[in-house]
Amino acid sequence: MEVSYITLYALSLLIATTLLRRLIYFLQTRTFIKTHGCKPARNVAWTSEPFLGLDYVLECVRKARTGFYMRYLASRFTRFGNTFVTRRLTHETLHTADPENLKYMLATGFEHYNLATLRINAMTPLFGLGIFTTNGAAWSHSRAILRPSFTKQNMTPLLTMMERHFQMLFKLVPTDGSVFDVQEIFFRFTMDTATEFLMGGSTHTLDPNRKSDRERQFVNDYMNCCYEAVRQVAFGKLQFLSRTPKGIDAATKRARAYVDRFVDEALRRKEKRKALGQSEDEVEYNFLEELAAQTTNRTLLRDQVLNVLLASRDTTAALLSNMFYELARKPELYAKLRREVLSQIKGELPTEAEMGDMTYLKWCLNEALRMYPVVPGNTREAIHDTILPVGGGEDGKSPIFVKAGTPIFYNVLAMHRRKDIYGEDADEYNPDRWDGLRPGWGFLPFNGGPRVCLGQNFALTEASYVTVRMLQSFDTLSAHDDKPWMEQYSLVLCSRNGVQVAVTPAK
Q1: Residues 49, 118 share a domain
Q2: Are residues 253 and 395 in the same domain?
Q3: Does pTM surpass 0.70?
Q4: Three-state SS string across 175-242, please?
Q5: What tens digit of pLDDT does each residue of 166-199 get?
Q6: Is the pLDDT of residue 282 over 80?
Q7: Residue-number span of the structural domain to which 379 is assigned
Q8: 364 is in an annotated binding site
Q9: Considering its fold, how many domains does the chain have in total?
Q10: Are residues 254 and 164 in the same domain?
């Protein structure tokens, strides 16, 4: 009898405590909402299956298979508005393509948001704990380790390295008018330059005489793991329902082991230099050598290299491919860009300063990044109760209350195609729109705020260099594929059908 009384008392106390906590949270939330002027989201997107939203997830998977995943997500903003909420009985998500909201999440309210757990879960198997897969102190540590390697970069030796690989690229371009996939060549080029820059050893995918089975296996494993990461993100909160495809675990281990080999070599060289009393300044620069001067943590070094490989290889290749896709279909733009290049540097190899002075080149790159942002969508997650500045109320101009743990999907592709920012021809490739255009946070090709891409200067310099060298080398560029543009969305956005073109050599 006494035991039953104690049990009943404990249960009553637990219920009372729970109710009290909920009451306190309710009152605190009501005060928070009132203080910040929050109002319910103006736009709501309901799913026909209201429990888990399986209909939406399955539609995303179907669109991904047919090459319309990101454009399907972008189309939802045309239907539901620039900021909307999706409610299910189990959870709620927010979606936005509004510059004010992105500025708040990524900059002014940065401390209120983390990378979403679903993204971290999808990317960690390959990329480990690096700058793109961590939050808080771990992210700050990664950023601190990487920053010196980018800020002290001397681009002159890197341009020499790029030229060496461009010569291999040039050999693969048919000069008899035959059709070839320039996207495939660009991805091989940036893989070769990125691996040499990062690890001091190129994969040599452009050079059949030097490419080994190990390099070929690494490239295949890396790409397959990236595709799997995107597939996992598409499942969202239902990642637990997705089975890992056969072979992915083995591919992940091989890809990481490939990088480990270079990490071990860098650490051995560091110990040898230390024994000989050599200064780090006497070492020929590569990214891994620079990182090894700051830490001997083998796993940390590998993870950082893999993270930066994504930024330095995939983004540049996608940017080049998407821009040449458009230039091949608009020969007048190719000719205009070529006139700018030849008028400024003629036949000499371009320097970083000379490329920086090419206005139309910058416009062409910006327009490709606008129409086809290499990272077209991303996610954040509220650390605690917070807000989005706009999207609430009858006019959509009031703040929205964001409960702790709520995932927010922001769509850069949709924002870059907004006609109220870029004009009625926002779906057309028009570099001249950048004459005087200042979209601010409405243009976000390299993220923004504290997480802005450290390697954007490297990526733009490499893309500019390859473009200039292509324009110097070929009089014309023509498209030979009448298929509509379809996305191949791995961790970056590019054409599923490649970029089928033909060129005529410069006279």
Answers
A1: yes
A2: yes
A3: yes
A4: CCCCCEEHHHHHHHHHHHHHHHHHHCCCCCCCCCCCCCHHHHHHHHHHHHHHHHHHHHHHHHHHHHHC
A5: 999 999 999 999 999 999 999 999 999 999 988 8
A6: no
A7: 37-505
A8: no
A9: 2
A10: yes
